[in-house]
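tool=predict chain=A
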Amino acid sequence: MRRCDTVATIAPMAADRLRAAALVTLLVTGHASYVAAQQAPLELMRLSGPIVLDGKLDEPAWERVPALPLTMYTPVFRGQPTQRTEIRVAYDSENLYVGGRFYDTDPSGIRVNSLYRDRWNGDDALAIYVDAFNDNQNAKWFGTTPAGMRFDVLVSDDGATLNDNWDTFWASATSITSEGWFAEVRIPFSSLGFEVGSDGRAVMGLTVTRLVSRLDERVTFPEIDPKFPFRKPSVAQDVVLQGVSSRTPLYITPYVLGGGSRDYRPDSSGGITRDVDDTKDIGVDVRYPLSGKLTLDLTANTDFAQVEADGQQIALDRFPLFFPERRRFFQEGSSIFDFVGSGGARLFHSRRIGLSADGMPVTILGGARLVGKVSKWDIGALEMQTGEYGSTPGENFGVLRLRRPMLNPWSSGGVLVTSYYGGGRHNLAVGADTSLRVHGDEYLGLKWSATVDSRDPDDVPLPERSLFDAKWERRTQRGLSYTGHVTRSGAHYLPELGFMPRTNVTTANVVGNWYFFTDRNRYFKRVYPGALAFNIVRNSDHALESGQYAVWAQWDTKAGGGGWIEPKLFHENVLVPFRIGNTVTIPAGSYDFADLQVVNTMPSGKRLRTDIDLRSGTYFDGRRTQLLLAPTWNINRHFEIGGDYQLNLLRFSSRDQSENIHLLRLRLRTALDARASGNAFVQYNSTTDRVDFNVRLRYAVAEGTDLWIVYNEGLDTDRALGQPERFTPLSVSRALVVKYSHTFGF
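tool=predict ok
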């Protein structure tokens, strides 16, 4: 071999090794730019005396705690705040304390829109984010308003996922004076969970913010560039607590329930049968923290009577609708079980447990959940057993999730296993995933999963049982942001505990934005044009099943509103005709169509506001005009009226088909104080000719101890359908339930 040939052969090999080494170096040190930007850990001060939680901050112990340095986050980064703010953070042997003095030059402008628990509604607010494990991925968000309304949220996936159905034990007190408003917050260490090092120190991530709602003015500690969401755990300030420990109390919450229901249903003879049922039930939930980082939950005869009814949806295409999980038992720590791919495909979706195919509750006989950390591993385990319901057999569900950091603090990898057994049928799903921070804001995500089902033939090859998902993204809200996403699922990929809007397809999606901050503009805070191209190809015949292509201009205003304008092109290849509403059928065929969407959102701090979403254009072989309105009126701190209205005007003149589809969802919320509240949820759907009422009254005796009165009624607005022999009563369903639960702590 000539030397030049040898060099020509070796050089590419050496270059490949150098590129591989460079990639490994980036992965291992990808966090360097973040670490350099962060300050050294801040030693929090231990309180020198007692604190009376009254919202006044008049104890000498507070004066010895230095105020945190605050930086304007919005509307202008590092701008001069118009309102003076002092926030202090300290601790004692059992609690973390936060005190805030929120001075206001116009106290009459302080926004107090709601007293409803867990319902932030454009109020002024103090928010506290605690990354108790300091893992840069997860945090617990505690917030309070000038009226003392509390809300708590789980933050996961470095701020990308929020779970506002989570509750824990903590307390706050507030007061309003002619100078502004003041707040004191006490968070028990038992509600945080954390790890104490061998040196006796606990290191956590901490972010605190104040929002002046009417001005959309937010200040933060630490200083956070608006290219990042302020709730990202990875941009929090590391703080140190000395000589503390996390308690592990045992909580036992039994409940008693009583009520009755009446329903009318068609019978086999074509008539109407009236069913009356009396309900009496008891059950219990047990929570025991095995350590400061690992919690075991046990449940027997689980009940979710107090959960708000699902919001109804209109199916405007041929794919299944997704409904989020709302039941609290499945909420805490739920992000550990996330395994979400392109188009919302999920390997595990907890709504598969305890609900029938038509959304009716199925008795959960019992179960256990284990969530937390062991060493560097995030652990999630779930085992549930349901009873029989009509034709639905008793079912057993199992889930195991393991995940840990890898390569650098902002990267992780893990596995997820789900199992199902019911009615003599079984299903097993196994998945592995990783999210790697390659460098700066660049991330690589990889997922692979496969299923085995007792209904499958024995000779199904592995690729047809599998899903592969790859995503490269640049996560930022300043400058260029983009995502490239490729997925393939096989024809026999069927996760029984998951949610799959489509199967046996290959997707290739690209979306990008360019964020411009307009600090000197009086109206706009940020403008970000963007574009997308989504393609979904059927594996069976390699035809483009669905395509979407769009460009848009989006904006945020300094007052807190926003909007966008978006023209979009669509392609749909329909194999089987499908119905929309009651009178429109889309025939099989290939369609290209387009529309224009215009959206405007008003600032959340306004007491009377609405969001408007209007789109119009061609639709398959016809036309569609869609209007969405989402008004809210905070009449006062005790009463709120809100809702949304959706109108779809469908016209297919070539086939002489048309339909006007209406969906109305109205919510009335009221709260006498922080303990007594009520919520009425009224829905009308023209495709089902139903009006449904869900009324929930709650009296919170104490944290974890509640009295609920729940009333449900369904009205048939079409009744006879023009045919007297099909006459049905106006009220086709009615139910009243009273439930009391009491938490005992040990």
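The two ends are 80 Å apart (CA to CA). Confidence is low (pLDDT under 50) at residues 1-37.
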